Amino acid sequence: MPLMTWNDEYSVKINIIDGQHKKLIDLLNQLYDAMHSGKGKEVLGKTLDELVAYTKVHFRTEEELFKKFSYPGFTQHKNEHDKLTNQVVEFQEQYKAGGSMLSIELMNFLTNWLSGHILKSDKKYTSFLNSKGVH
What we know:
There is one protein chain. The chain is mainly alpha-helical. It has a domain at 39-130: Hemerythrin-like (Four Helix Bundle (Hemerythrin (Met), subunit A), Up-down Bundle). The chain is built from four helices and no strands. It has helices spanning 15-36, 41-69, 74-96, 104-131. Helix 1 (15-36) packs antiparallel against helix 2, helix 1 packs antiparallel against helix 4 (104-131) and helix 2 runs antiparallel to helix 3. The longest helix has 29 residues, at 41-69. The chain starts with 14 loop residues before the first helix and ends with a helix.
């Protein structure tokens, strides 16, 4: 059973962003499935690496749109991206060094952050970018 499931409530009505959000949810679910089925550290580490790398790609996509259209909430939104990136990279480094385990608490943190970020922060830019012709 997936940890998080995409539904239309998460749509920001921008195809590229919705597609990336779906991919992030899929990667989160892959990480959860690997952890839950007792996969080895190598498999978990690779999946975590992919999730971290794709999160950075996604944030870059959003930030490029913000710059292109002069989104007024750019600075605050970028600060949220930077904070999460730093938190996840720090966890990733601890995990690779053997000082941290993947846990339900981490999965819950990532799920809550992803759903909360989409539903609260990302939804704020929908009407602005849609008004600029971004769909």
